[in-house]
Amino acid sequence: MRMAVNQYPTTASPVGAPVSPILSIDRGSSDQYDTVIETHAHPEPKLIWSVSATATVHAAARDWLIPPGYGLWIPGGVAHGGAVLRAGEGSAVAFSPDSCPITWTRPTGVAVGPLLRELFAHLYLASHQDPSRPHAEALMFALLVALPTHDIHVAVPTDPRVRAIAERLVADPSDQRELAAWSDHVHASVRTLSRLFPRETGLSFARWRTQVRIRAAIQLLADGASVNATARAVGYRKPSAFISAFRRVTGHTPGTYLHTD
């Protein structure tokens, strides 16, 4: 992952200026699948979030799926590593352990909506002396709200046969192939795959795929796509089937997540 870094070291703050809780904002892109980030830790808390890539992060004995429009808060000192499942752009924000108002002690998922995304872009360019910084930072922290666990987590299999299927479905949730077709693709029997999916993810293949589709649908709806267009984009031929699955997974109708100005 190639990253451009905009740093705000405390020592660079002019005398009398408020100390920014942001140490650095990194932005970059990955040009290929399977870019691996080796396990590491750092003393400062970080927020990593996806603009257009899809990544998986292993932290605190758990795999986190980070699709576009979502991020993961990683507290200082927590070991983590990961891989890029779909090439694209991403960003990372490092915070001062001493002045950051967020005190989450465990990896925590967040949604990065259009306003938060624009705030990050503004802060990336704004200098320490910019009078808008304190206001922009305060609004940024107000918008960083922890998501419920079930809203961010989609278990990522570790067995290479079901992981290959999972990665393809994350990259393209509209893929219609059932296990019989996937069995030829990964050279494993349908019976084996049917056994591995629940063991690796806690869900049957069909239920896991539904979770991935609804996860992708939430971001499309938030970005302004219609219900019908979203249904087609994530693999549902009939909007009624999509609405039913959406309600079953989230407890709400898709209209709840539609972007409104």
TrEMBL record:
Amino-acid biosynthesis is among the record's keywords: no
Species of origin: Streptomyces paludis
Tree of life domain: Bacteria
Gene3D superfamilies noted in UniProt: Homeodomain-like (1.10.10.60)
Domain annotation HTH araC/xylS-type: ranges: 163-260
Protein name: HTH-type transcriptional regulator RipA
Keywords: DNA-binding, Repressor, Transcription, Transcription regulation
GO molecular function terms attached to this record: DNA-binding transcription factor activity; sequence-specific DNA binding
SUPFAM superfamilies assigned: Homeodomain-like
Keyword Transmembrane helix found: no
